[in-house]
Amino acid sequence: MPDLSLDLRYLNYAILVAEHGSFRAAAQTLNLSQSTVSRRIQLLEHRIGIALFDRSPKGAELTPAGDRFLKLAAVGASHMQQAILETRKAHRGKIGDLRIGVATSLARGFLGDLLESYRAVYPSIDVRVEEVSQRIAGTRLLSRRLDVAFLAGVPDVPSCTTTRMWNERLVVALPKSHRLAELSSLAWDDLRDETFLRPANDMGAEMESLLLRKLYESGSNPSISTHDVGRDDMLTLVARGFGVFMTLESTVSEDYRNVTFVPVGDDTDIVEFSAVLLNEQQNPAIAPFLKFAAARSPYPIEKPAARSNIKPASGA
């Protein structure tokens, strides 16, 4: 059609007239007056420059040109209506993509459960997840390479909003043969003679900073051993006796054989996690996602009591 701004309803009116063979019957279907339907189809005919119908007292019959036009236009209208529907869904955040940065494991806990339930409710959103440190997350949020990042603490990232989402307990991964492996929980002083493994990346440095603060407070001078490997290989090193590894309860999994996870510290030894996103969002999927996440967040919550039900994992 030469004028793409033409109301698609006019085309729909013409299709109904053709189906019913009558302006009156089409008007009754549309709950409009016959004169209204007739005028709008005349406007459509004027816009496209051809007569669509031969009008007679018996009704309305498509002209050959009108028949050809409606067969072609109906297909185009269907595609246009589908495009409009998809665009409206995208605007409401029901289709599209979501780029999420995470600074914790998805093995268990709040974040893994959140993403799983979100995917079930919004299957048309393409969710892409990448592991990031706080430094990298800030850069990628500001460059719009991430839509939201879930980071430890309540970070102050320029031009971003931070919302507290959940807490995680600190745990220590130990070889099953370790003298402390049978305990239900550990004090920081119990770890004064241990060698702590840390990954050679930003997230390892962030966890090391927390570890050193806690151990120094207990009067310990810990030994740190750095390895340029990922979380899975780090836990394999634990299982093989290279040292112990401080991590978060979301890491606890039955996939690690010969490794035991034991809570450390008291009920104040938790790590808060927050959702961080740009103040000015361009992705319409982010607002429904944050609303979905906030509805499942345990905040406002009390700091959790010490837990002894983190069972030794079987697997590594």
Brief synopsis:
It is built from 9 helices and 12 strands. It is of the alpha/beta class and 316 residues long.
Q: What does this molecule look like?
A:
The structure is a single chain. The protein has 316 residues and is of the alpha/beta class. Helices cover 38% and strands 24% of the residues. It contains 9 helices and 12 strands. Strands 3, 4, 5, 6, 9, 10, 11 and 12 form an 8-stranded mixed sheet that branches. Strands 1-2 form a two-stranded antiparallel ribbon. It has a two-stranded parallel ribbon with strand order 7-8. Helix 5 links the parallel strand 3 and strand 4. The radius of gyration is 31 Å and the shape is rod-shaped. Residues 1-5 and 301-316 have low confidence and may be disordered.
Measured on Cα atoms, how large is the radius of gyration?
Answer: 31 Å
Number of strands: 12
Strand content: 15-25%
Element order: H for helix, E for strand: HHHEEHEHEHEEEHEHEEEHE
Rough outline: rod-shaped
* Biggest beta-sheet profile: 8 strands, mixed
Helical amount among residues, as a percent range?
A: 25-40%
Tally of individual helices:
9
Derived structural class: alpha/beta
In the predicted model, the low-confidence regions spanning at least 5 consecutive residues are 1-5, 301-316
Chain-averaged pLDDT = 82
What gap, in angstroms, lies between the N and C termini? 65 Å
